[in-house]
């Protein structure tokens, strides 16, 4: 291992990628499309076997097709032997998870383990090799944590013995392959000029501005970007709650706000809050890093606090239509943190479900993605929440006999729900739309009790 076909790469380079999560698999697919050869490394045998059969271990549109083509062409294989992969490649991308610890700081155990593997591979490798941090890590991690581990394990010095770079990802799940192929910008932070220049050889063909900087700045760009976007979401939600209290439609408000060129229209859609693998984790990590550096914060904690409270607005609206929720059958539509993904990390569906169960509701949940349904139910079980919760195989099954429904993602299946179906299926057609998936005017016209965050709910 690895046994990539000779001549399969042509003018491309050989790249090892550690981690078969969203970032690692999308990065692999992106480089395969650019003509490079890829070795994927993971500690999970079933994931390795899936990739070698041309299958994708995660749900992300378009990725499996690219992986399968790479396997057939002899330009992709997966292995559990990271040391051998390093010896046979020119670049190593670190794409492993950096989950939150209890105190909000990031857990670097996987990053450290991979760094040691890369170091061992470099010890017996000939020639120059660039190690690239793709995982999201707080500033100084690459230089103060990853670098010394690799130097100790390899017996080489960074700069002379190997290159070191940071290349953060800016992917939106559900659109990740498109984002990686046609990015808004590419950020390359390097230890030195040689690290950056070598990185540029595999970034040819990308139609995007390239920012070349140092390691710490590249790490911070990712956190600053996510913090700013999360702040836009949180502020939009705060404005939405005020709009609700005054009978104003926040979407009309934000349409006017978004036309200001200084602000722009993106991430102004109010709703049940943000989730996923990036925003909540990254903001907590940056907050913790700031606290360690004794930097006094006010905005960051407020963004996080607002996001924790926001999903409960949907439950509040539902309670407003019932004297109480005990014994009421409630449908929760949308379990992943956004449409077109099976990712339930930090999904706002969880606090909504927990609040509904605590209020005594009988819960029926559904997501168009089967894996998302399984992942959510597993996560809900770990909370040891008390109450009745049934997972359904369709939106219609979840809505049948329901006294109310909360829409938590704007999935296409939910956007296509017709008023006549809601009236036919539900015992009482009360819809709380947490993502503005449905047309409020159409719902009201046909006698649906429609409530939404930032809508005229009087």
Explain this structure to me?
The structure is a single chain. The protein has 458 residues and is α/β, with parallel strands linked by helices. It folds into 3 domains: 14-213, Rossmann fold; 224-308, N-(1-d-carboxylethyl)-l-norvaline Dehydrogenase, domain 2 (Orthogonal Bundle), CATH 1.10.1040.10; 311-452, NAD(P)-binding Rossmann-like Domain (Rossmann fold, 3-Layer(aba) Sandwich). Helix content is 43%, strand content 13%. It contains 19 helices and 14 strands. The protein has helices at 22-33, 45-52, 63-72, 82-87, 109-123, 141-154, 176-181, 193-200, 215-245, 250-258, 279-292, 299-309, 312-319, 349-358, 370-382, 395-399, 412-415, 419-425, 440-445, and strands at residues 14-18, 37-41, 76-79, 91-94, 130-133, 163-166, 186-190, 210-213, 329-333, 362-366, 389-391, 404-407, 430-433, 449-452. The chain has an 8-stranded mixed sheet, with helices on both faces. A 6-stranded parallel sheet has the order 11-10-9-12-13-14. Helix 5 runs parallel beside helix 6 and helix 9 (215-245) packs across helix 11. The longest helix is centred in the middle third of the chain and has 31 residues, at 215-245. The chain is elongated.
Number of strands: 14
CATH class of the largest domain: Alpha Beta
The end-to-end span amounts to 66 Å
Uncertain segments are 5-10
| Overall geometric form | elongated
Percentage of residues assigned to helices: 40-55%
Please state how the strands of the largest beta sheet are arranged side by side.
3-2-1-4-5-6-7-8
Number of domains: 3
Number of helices: 19
Structural class: alpha/beta
Q: What CATH architecture of the largest domain do you see?
A: 3-Layer(aba) Sandwich
Oligomer: single chain
Return the average pLDDT rounded to an integer: 93
How much of the residues is beta strand, in percent?
5-15%
Q: What is the gyration radius calculated from CA atoms?
A: 24 Å
Question: How would you sum up the major sheet?
Answer: 8 strands, mixed
What is the third-level CATH name, the topology of the largest domain? Rossmann fold
């Amino acid at each position: 291992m690895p046994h990539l076909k000779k001549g399969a790469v042509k003018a491309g380079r050989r790249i090892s990628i550690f981690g078969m999560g969203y970032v690692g698999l999308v990065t692999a697919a992106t480089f395969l499309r650019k003509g490079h050869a890829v070795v994927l490394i993971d500690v999970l045998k079933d994931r390795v076997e899936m990739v070698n059969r041309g299958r994708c271990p995660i749900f992300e549109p378009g990725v499996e097709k690219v992986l399968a083509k790479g396997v057939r062409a002899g330009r992709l294989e997966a292995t559990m032997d990271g040391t051998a992969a390093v010896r046979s490649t020119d670049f190593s991308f670190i794409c492993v998870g950096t989950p939150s610890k209890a105190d909000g700081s990031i857990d670097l155990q996987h990053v450290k383990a991979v760094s040691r593997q890369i170091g061992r591979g470099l010890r017996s490798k000939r020639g120059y090799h660039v190690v690239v941090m793709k995982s999201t890590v707080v500033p100084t991690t690459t230089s103060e944590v990853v670098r010394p581990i690799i130097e100790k394990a390899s017996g080489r010095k960074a700069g002379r013995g190997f290159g070191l770079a940071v290349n953060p990802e800016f992917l939106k799940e559900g659109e990740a392959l498109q984002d990686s192929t046609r990015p808004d910008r590419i950020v390359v932070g390097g230890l030195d000029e040689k690290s950056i220049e070598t990185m540029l050889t595999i970034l040819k063909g990308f139609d995007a501005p390239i920012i070349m900087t140092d390691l710490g700045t590249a790490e911070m760009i990712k956190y600053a970007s996510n913090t700013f976007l999360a702040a836009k979401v949180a502020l939009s939600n705060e404005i939405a709650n005020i709009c609700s209290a005054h009978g104003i439609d926040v979407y009309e408000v934000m349409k006017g706000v978004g036309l200001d060129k200084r602000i722009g229209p993106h991430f102004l859609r109010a709703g049940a809050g943000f989730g996923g693998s990036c925003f909540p984790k990254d903001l907590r990590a940056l907050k913790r890093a700031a606290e360690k550096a004794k930097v006094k914060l006010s905005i960051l904690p407020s963004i996080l606090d607002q996001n924790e409270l926001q999903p409960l607005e949907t439950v509040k609206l539902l309670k407003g239509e019932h004297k109480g929720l005990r014994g009421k059958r409630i449908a929760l539509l949308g379990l992943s943190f956004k449409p077109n993904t099976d990712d339930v990390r930090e999904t706002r569906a969880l606090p909504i479900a927990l609040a509904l169960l605590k209020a005594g509701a009988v819960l029926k949940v559904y997501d168009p993605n089967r894996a998302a349904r399984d992942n959510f139910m597993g996560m809900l079980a770990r909370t040891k929440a008390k109450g009745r919760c049934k997972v359904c195989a369709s939106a219609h099954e979840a809505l049948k006999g329901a006294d109310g429904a909360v829409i938590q993602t704007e999935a296409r299946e939910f956007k296509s729900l017709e008023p006549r179906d809601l009236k036919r299926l539900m015992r009482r057609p009360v819809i709380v739309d947490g993502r503005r998936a449905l047309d409020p005017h159409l719902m009201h016209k046909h006698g649906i009790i429609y409530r939404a965050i930032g809508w005229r709910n009087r």
